[in-house]
Structures are given as structure tokens and as C-alpha cells.
Amino acid sequence: MRFTKFVTITFFVSDCAFAFNTPKEIFYDIVAIFQNASTIDHYQFMNHLQTVNNSIDCNFACKDTISQISQTNDKIVLYVSSQSKVNKFRSNVLSKFVQTYIKHQLESDNEINRSLTNILKALEAQLSTLNLAATKKVSELLMFMKSQLTDLGIIDKENISALDAAADEKYLVEGMLVFVKGIFFFLICSVLTSVLCMGLVGSLLAIQLILWIVVLIRYLLIDT
Ligand SMILES: *[C@@H]1O[C@H](CO)[C@@H](O)[C@H](O)[C@H]1NC(C)=O
Ligand SMILES: *[C@@H]1O[C@H](CO)[C@@H](O)[C@H](O)[C@H]1NC(C)=O
Ligand SMILES: *[C@@H]1O[C@H](CO)[C@@H](O)[C@H](O)[C@H]1NC(C)=O
Ligand SMILES: *[C@@H]1O[C@H](CO)[C@@H](O)[C@H](O)[C@H]1NC(C)=O
After folding, report:
1. Could you give the angle at the alpha carbon of 48 between the alpha carbons of 114 and 73, nearest 5°?
2. How far out from the chain centre does Cα 205 lie?
3. In the predicted model, what is the mean pLDDT of the chain?
4. pLDDT single digits (tens) 152-202
5. In the 3-class helix/strand/coil scheme, how is 1-22 assigned residue by residue?
6. In the chain, N or C: fewer CB atoms in 10 Å?
7. What is the pTM of this model?
8. What number does the ligand 1 atom closest to the CA of 33 have?
9. What is the reported pLDDT for 60?
10. CB-side exposure of 142: number of CA atoms within 13 Å?
């Protein structure tokens, strides 16, 4: 599918220097946004962006980015609406996290340019994540996530080398799920019922959330 191609290409051209923060710092900064947010919820960011678009300060570049954001958001809505009920549910929860990130961007002291660029990247990363989640098996997603997390230095290679040695895929899957749940357990549980948060649904959500963050970090690293 077309989005998969997008992810692959982007990952090869990235890795240029990020002047201010390491990927690990960016990762935990993003996690902190959710830990600080009073709720993880829908945010009508297009309404907010309409106001920005109409403001006198919004120059050509600003209007252009808003237009790209709008188009990418339309693609996401269309993509999710074509999904099966189960996938749609998961995608909608991921959307709440992305919208919370976007709200944080719009309320931050960043220059509006910077916020708009980050919002566009967040939505592009969401589209890529939805596509990965729909086309890959859970074990493939976990392997991909593991390689991204170690490549970006978010988790230490040594700490999971025990998992590498294990030829047993089930062991690796369980090890990664412990990592995933360790970071996002309470966040996920705050948006789901407690029954769902404990089980597979919660784990798959957490995997998508971490995938979204690592894809976003890749996009943020490309240019700043
Ligand atoms: C989280 O909240 C603390 C305390 O209110 C604040 O110092 C910090 O900057 C916040 N972090 C983010 C990412 O908003
Ligand atoms: C904002 O966009 C304008 C026009 O493209 C550009 O000249 C300016 O450097 C940008 N500012 C930031 C902080 O990215
Ligand atoms: C932003 O404003 C311009 C007119 O200045 C309009 O053509 C464009 O459609 C608006 N973009 C969005 C996303 O509403
Ligand atoms: C790696 O393992 C060491 C020793 O158990 C621990 O102190 C460190 O925090 C771990 N690092 C990460 C990134 O998990």
C-alpha cells in the first residue's frame, strides 16, 4: 500500500543530526505530554486551526501547512472509516492520543510555524502507524518496534540482548509487551475500561502508541 512505501523511504533518509535533543529525550518529552495531560480526549483541532488560518499573522507558509494538515487529517478519517470495527476502535483511541499531542502543540509557547510543522508530522506518523498496524502481524510490529527503539537509543541494546538471544519468538513478544505496558499502562487504562486495559486490546493499543511515537521521532529528526 502507498503509506508503507512512505515509511520505508523516510526511514532511510533520516538520522541526520538533531541539534538539540537526543531521540531518547524526544521520546520521553512526548511521553511527558501525556503524563501531564489531565485527560486524553478528542480535540477539535481543525476548528482551532481555522482560527489560526484566518488570523492576520498567518502568512503563505502558514496557510500552506494548515492546508496540508487538513488534507492529511481527511486521509486519516477516510482510512479509519474503511476499517473493520475492531481496528476502528483501536484507531480512534490512537487518534485521541494524537489529538492530545496536537492540543499541547497549539497551547505551547512554540512559534506557530514550529507547532504547525509538528502537527503535520504527527498526523503523517499516525497515517503510517495505522497502515503498519493494518498490514503487519503483532510479532512483526514488535520486532520493528524493538529495532526502532534500539536504533534510536531509546532502550539500551544490552538490556534486551537477553531477548535477542532467545530464539523463542513468544519470549521476545512477552518481553516487549512488558516494556510497552510499563510505560503506557496507566495512560491506556485511563481511556479504556479496566477490563480492556489489562488484556490484549490494551497491549495492542500501547504498541500502536509507541510505534506512532517512534515514527514521529523519525519525522522530527529529518528536518527541524
Ligand atoms: C509537566 O508538568 C510540569 C509541572 O507542572 C511542568 O514543569 C512540565 O514542563 C510539564 N511538561 C510538559 C511536557 O508539559
Ligand atoms: C516560518 O515560516 C517562514 C516562511 O516559510 C520562514 O521564513 C520562517 O523561518 C519560519 N520560522 C520558523 C521558526 O520555522
Ligand atoms: C485558509 O484561508 C484561505 C484564505 O485565506 C483559504 O483559501 C483556505 O481554504 C483556508 N484553509 C483552510 C484549511 O480552511
Ligand atoms: C538497563 O539495565 C540497567 C541495569 O539493570 C538499568 O540500570 C538501566 O536503567 C537500564 N536501561 C534502560 C534504558 O532500561
Report:
1. 75
2. 11
3. 82
4. 988 877 666 555 555 566 777 777 777 777 777 767 777 777 777 777 777
5. CHHHHHHHHHHHHCCCCCCCCC
6. N
7. 0.82
8. 13
9. 95
10. 21
CB of 22 shorter than 6 A to ligand 3: no
What integer pLDDT is reported at residue 17 of this predicted model? Answer: 37
Shortest-distance atom of ligand 3 to CA 66? 13
Ligand 2 is surrounded, with C-beta below 6 A, by 61, 111, 113-114
In the DSSP assignment, the letter for residue 125 is H
Pocket flag, ligand 4, residue 139 (CB < 6 Å): no
Cell numbers linked to 14: 533520516
Question: Which amino acid, residue 55?
Answer: S
Number of H helices, E strands in the chain: 11, 0
Model pLDDT for residues 164-177, shown as the tens digit of each residue: 555 566 777 777 77
Question: Helix, strand, or coil here: 29?
Answer: helix
Query: What is the signed CA dihedral for 118, 119, 123, 129, rounded to 10 degrees?
Result: 40
Residue 218, CA distances (Å) to 23, 60, 190, 214, 223 in order: 9, 26, 27, 6, 10
The pLDDT of residue 160: 63
